Amino acid sequence: MAELADIPNEFIKNELDEFVEREDERAELIDLYSRSAPHLLEIGAAILSGRNEDADRLTVEALERGTGALEVMDDGLIAGMALVGIKFRENFIFVPEVLACARAMKAGMVHIEPILSASGIEPLAKVIMGTVKGDLHDIGKNLCIMLLRGAGFEVIDLGVDTSADEFIDAVEEHGATLVGMSALLTTTMPNMGRTIDAFIDADVRDDVKIMVGGAPVTPEFADEMGADAYGDNAVECVQVAKRLAGVAG
Which residues contact 119 (CB under 8 A, 6 or more apart)? Predict the structure, then answer.
């Protein structure tokens, strides 16, 4: 079993030790980082520090040295964002820091996405994502989208203030099997339930799995609204999406 000392990057090792408290998450991240190549952990550290120019350069260098695009993405870019998501959830960092980290990951993904597209790799599933009607907050949703795309999902982003009809139309247009709804305001949370009811009324509820999340949302509320799953943060969102899509890992 891997230990903290096995991580070949001092910055990431110290960040994990200081900010990750849950034992299951510590064990999972220690395993991930200890088996990642040092040059990929440098990418993760750039993401974690919000250094977009370094993320861009290091990603290009990793690809030029022959590291596969999927490995660069999984063990570099996504590995860095995994720790960002936990720090954000636990209020160690806030929106400006998350945005900087997201820009850094995007700088790296610019080089990864064309390679994956050209390789013809089929997406794990299609996901419709949107913030519900009346809510204009999208930081958490956008972070979820970034990690979902990095994990191999095709994501259609409906943005904010998304009506029930817009969710339904997008599912039918794209043939999506997953829907993710976000809300940050307690006043807009009921619109999750109304959207799910609209899926039932349109006779398409059985065609999709619906996951919900957002700061005020709880697992109990998700159950009451009739959602299929709840995600506490962006990292968990990917895990939930994989489970709903029947994908291992």
Answer: 69
238 phi and psi angles, rounded to 5 deg:
-65, -45
Q: Which CATH number fits domain 7-118: 2.40.10.220, 1.10.10.410, 1.10.1240.10, 1.10.10.10?
A: 1.10.1240.10
As a whole number, mean pLDDT of residues 176-188 equals: 97
Q: Write out the residue limits of the CATH 3.40.50.280 domain(s) in the chain.
A: 126-245
H-assigned helices in the chain: 10-19, 23-34, 38-49, 52-64, 69-72, 79-89, 95-118, 139-150, 164-174, 190-201, 219-225, 234-245
CATH number of 126-245: 3.40.50.280
CA distances in angstroms from 44 to 59, 120, 208, listed in the order given: 10, 26, 34
Q: Which two tokens stand for residue 66?
A: 């022959």
Closest CA to 44 of 7, 99, 90: 7
150: closest CA among 89, 30, 59? 59
Beta bridge partners of 155: 127
- CB-CB contact of 84 with 48 (8 Å): yes
> Contact at 8 Å (CB) between 125 and 245?
yes
Q: For residue 7, which of 48, 55, 41, 56 has the smallest C-alpha distance?
A: 41
Residue limits of CATH 1.10.1240.10 in the chain: 7-118
pTM, full prediction: 0.76
Q: What is the pLDDT of residue 175?
A: 97
